[in-house]
């Protein structure tokens, strides 16, 4: 069935499919591990049971997401040997140790303390248990550090030399680890993980507020999530802008594709909002654009010249349509997150954070937005790097294993079937858990409002708690 397909294209699709499934779990678990640490810290500080109850609720979901992330990640490392053995041979001296450090210093740290975090509160005491939670959170960040260092080096390679076998040989490990794009990618990805988690937590809280179940717990998590989004979303937009400027410096062709600039603009480039890229004819059809705004954003000068893809050979251009649209999806969702954060601030200052159904519906709809934005961002990054695996040095076509298209195609079909069955079932179970937030314990219903991330819930919520608590005691 796959005899007439290109093996390189099928291998790229296979890796893209598996990494797309994989990335949604680390993007969630990185932020959720930090959220668990915050919840336990607040419980130890305030002694308010609601934080411990939320910790117990989310730790089960974290364990499932962490497990699925580990399993889906192992598959990708095998593909380096099966589908990309030439890349592994040539780049292995650089990326091999970095990925080994990820396992030794990060994954072992996460896995070593995960059991204590999940099952050891009554066995090790509150202080050591909190330390275990912090170590799990730190381990997720360390894991992201090493993986993003590997990917960033492939985007902006530094600190290496080529030997007589065509291999990348390390000459400066500091330059390799802290390559030119690493600080920007790491910051952008970690903030994306925190936003992804905040959107999920906020959506769960909004769902239960709309259903009027567990208002104390739902209100607490919703307030914390909206506060995080209001703070992090504008920071992420700024970090993304800085990352874009770094990409312009080191990977200008990728930015040309992101902006849809087929032509050079010596007197200021327009910002193309929408259009249909036509790579064959090197133009954007039906373009909706704002004159010179792209030059202002990228060069901080309305009349600054910007080169276009007409300065790049056709065989060195990335697939423009994919990069152009994935970038716009990411940007649109980023501003939608900013809008949600601002709307929540408005409702918070009006005292309607827990009563505004439109805010709750908005938060519920935005629940998956973080995952979509992360996927769109990685598509922009990886497809925009083409036709290279190591940017400017090793072509993707020269990285593939000597493998036939039918073999790659058969394994791709197997991956699609197994992934949708296994991880689809796991995701469905996580969603079921999210929909089963236990009702507020009766003894706490009459105690009035609590402070959630420094914010006092609205009096109406407290009155509702007191009313139900009074009814219970009267009965």
TrEMBL record:
Topology within the bilayer? Multi-pass membrane protein
Task: Give TM segment ranges.
Answer: 20-45, 57-78, 98-120, 127-148, 189-210, 222-239, 325-346, 358-379, 408-431
User: Keywords of this protein's UniProt record, alphabetized?
Assistant: Cell membrane, Electron transport, Heme, Iron, Membrane, Metal-binding, Oxidoreductase, Transmembrane, Transmembrane helix, Transport
Where is it chiefly localized? membrane
Q: What is its EC number?
A: 1.10.3.-
Q: Biological process GO terms, please?
A: aerobic electron transport chain
Q: What class of enzyme is it?
A: oxidoreductase
Q: Where in the cell is it found?
A: Cell inner membrane; Cell membrane
One cellular-component annotation, GO: cytochrome complex
Q: Does the keyword rRNA-binding belong to this entry? A: no
InterPro entries linked to this entry:
Cyt-d_ubiquinol_oxidase_su_1 (IPR002585)
The Gene Ontology terms for molecular function here are: electron transfer activity; heme binding; metal ion binding; oxidoreductase activity, acting on diphenols and related substances as donors, oxygen as acceptor
> Mind telling me which Pfam families this protein's record contains?
Cyt_bd_oxida_I (PF01654)
Q: Would I find Lipoprotein among this entry's keywords?
A: no
Family membership: Belongs to the cytochrome ubiquinol oxidase subunit 1 family.
Q: What is this protein called?
A: Cytochrome d ubiquinol oxidase subunit I
